[in-house]
Amino acid sequence: MSPGTSSEMAASNPSGTVWPTAKPGVSVVVATAIVVADMVGVGVFTSLGFQVKDMPSGFSILMLWSVGGIVALCGVFSYSELGAMFPRSSGEYNFLGRAFHPAFGFLAGWVSATVGFAAPVALAAMAFAEYARSIVPEAPVMPVAVGVIWLVSIVQLFGLKHSSAFQLVSTLVKVTLILAFLFAGFAVAQPQPISFAPKAGDLAHITSAPFAIGLVFVMYAFSGWNAATYIIGELRTPQRSLPKSLLFGTLIVMVLYVALNAVFLWTAPIDKLAGQIQVASISGSYVFGDLGGRIVAAMILVGLVPSISAMMWIGPRVMMTMGEDIPVLGLFARRSKRGAPAYAILFQLAVATLLLFTQSFEKVLDFIQFSLLFCSFFTVLAVVKLRIFSPELPRPYRAWGYPVTPAVFLLVTGFMMYYLLVERPVQALLGMLIMLSGVVIYAIFHRRADPGVAIAPPGRN
């Protein structure tokens, strides 16, 4: 069987059950909105204070965020090639299972389907509640956090049509608010004595250890550039729309990130930003006066809704696809009459709610960072492997800049994994244990699929 279409690859599982598939109806615009919404969280609004503390240079800071965007684009090109080759929802679960072994794909899927998306959803919901309190001090944190997750989940349960409309509108509102803040910052605020042109000393900043460490956290802010790969099966003409949505979404976010950091530096003194977390609020106070903090909080508050929505959309698709392949998980492959993987959505909702009530989502995020980087690293490495060992496979899209772009991504991601191993060895070790638990579970109840099913290794097509 050739890589084929998503309907060919997802129509059956090893047990012979035929699963209903959603009619591909997600446009490039909506897929791009998912990418943008999944990427732009609170990271860009809180990172600058620690970066400018060691690099008090406008040019160096903008270069830092530009380099982060370029590395993300390098990942985009590789993921686009794999997505066009194997157009099936679930991201790394699909790619690693095809390129290496179904067990490797299950390992990645296990992390994503259990806590990989639920923990960031819980974190974003808690951030939503905290920003709500800065506007309405009496707002109860936990009910607000749980409420926003449940509200977004209900929208997802109504199916693709409602999910698409909600995602597109909420993301457009988010981007519009950011653009309005950028315009106000450059047009209204009193400019600070900051230069964004290169000057003596910038090369030393760019080649310094703080720049390399800062890049680690910048890359975390860019995480989510691969969001559309989790819903490939729901995209119209995925071989063309997936590369476009990943590219457009990442470019939009790259421009927004560079512009936001520029406006923070333009509006607020560096000594006021250095070492601070709420850099956006500090900048807002210089732009809008005493109400600046609340205005920025409202902007971030509204912007978190499409982020939660994107993760509640794409995360359950991993469990759904695993359910199509593994009989024990078959319940999660079932779709409602509206085409939503209801049980998979409810599962992620339950896990995210549990993480909120146990206040464990931050610890879980610490543990899984290494696992997520590990899976991304090997997914990009899969492009190289398949180019060498399976050159005959059809490639509707070929990674731009190959082999340089995959090499850049692998080097930076490798450095990030090394940094976590050195700086946070306990968390990295626990992340590896989480992955190993996936291998054990795979060995316990996995039933090998027919070679024609999507998780069959390449070379048997």
Q: What does the model show?
A:
This protein is an all-alpha fold. It has a single domain, classed as Amino acid/polyamine transporter I (Up-down Bundle), CATH 1.20.1740. Helix 7 packs across helix 17 and helix 17 packs antiparallel against helix 18. It is globular.
Q: Regarding CATH, which class? A: Mainly Alpha
The helicity comes to 55-70%
Cα(first) to Cα(last) distance is 4 Å
Mean pLDDT figure: 89
Describe the structure concisely for a colleague:
With 461 residues, this protein is mainly α. It has helices at 6-10, 28-39, 48-54, 58-85, 92-99, 102-116, 118-135, 141-157, 160-187, 202-206, 209-222, 238-267, 270-273, 279-288, 292-325, 342-358, 361-389, 404-423, 425-445. The radius of gyration is 22 Å and the shape is globular.
Give the arrangement of secondary structure elements.
Blueprint: H1 6-10, H2 28-39, H3 48-54, H4 58-85, H5 92-99, H6 102-116, H7 118-135, H8 141-157, H9 160-187, H10 202-206, H11 209-222, H12 238-267, H13 270-273, H14 279-288, H15 292-325, H16 342-358, H17 361-389, H18 404-423, H19 425-445
